[in-house]
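Q: What residues go here?
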């Protein structure tokens, strides 16, 4: 939010592309891409059971929906030729992802931790059934090994992702405005390649997250 405010003030860019970036991310990633994952992964189990296929599918899907969403935004919604708006859009796209993926998780973790410190394990599990008690205890155990380094890692990873979103937005902007498909292809390939390490972490092929 701070990045967005500072950029809007300094660049004197319209705020409209910021909201378009946020909306496009939510629609194309949280709704459409998630729906496709539900269908594909349930009907083609070999993808989930094969690390290589899972990473390849996930990276290609992310590139397709996010860069496709950018193309739709610059082709049909952001009709001007102001280059600054490519950056504004990228900040909106990356910022809403940062808020939804990391911000809300960190906030809920903070609230849970404060509840634990205030009520204790007995107060938090009072009146819960056995399965819920086990779930709360597992969360407490996970929090005991959760450190400042983990928060820092999340922030660094999301900031790098924000730079990716701004970079890809610039490429797709020029692809639409100059009618050059190669810029769109570059953005897609860039996005796919940059997602590979995250996929390898999910599949435990990389154990050192740093």
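A:
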């Amino acid at each position: 939010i701070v990045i967005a405010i500072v950029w809007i003030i300094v660049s004197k860019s319209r705020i409209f592309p910021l909201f378009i970036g946020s909306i496009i991310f939510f629609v194309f990633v949280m709704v459409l891409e998630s729906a496709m994952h539900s269908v594909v992964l349930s009907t083609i189990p070999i993808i989930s059971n094969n690390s290589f296929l899972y990473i390849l599918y996930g990276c290609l899907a992310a590139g397709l929906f996010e860069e496709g969403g950018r193309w739709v935004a610059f082709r049909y919604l952001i009709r001007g030729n102001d280059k600054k708006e490519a950056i504004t859009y990228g900040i909106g796209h990356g910022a809403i992802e940062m808020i939804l993926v990391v911000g809300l998780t960190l906030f809920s973790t903070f609230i849970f931790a404060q509840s634990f410190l205030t009520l204790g394990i007995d107060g938090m599990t009072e009146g819960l059934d056995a399965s819920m008690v086990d779930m709360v205890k597992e969360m407490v155990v996970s929090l005991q090994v959760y450190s400042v380094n983990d928060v820092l890692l999340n922030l660094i990873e999301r900031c790098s992702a924000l730079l990716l979103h701004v970079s890809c937005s610039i490429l797709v902007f020029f692809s639409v405005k100059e009618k050059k498909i190669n810029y769109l292809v570059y953005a897609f390939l860039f996005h796919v390649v940059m997602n590979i390490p995250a996929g390898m972490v999910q599949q435990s092929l990389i154990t050192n997250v740093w």
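A: Context that may help when evaluating the design: Residues 84-125 form the longest helix (42 residues). The two ends are 26 Å apart (CA to CA).
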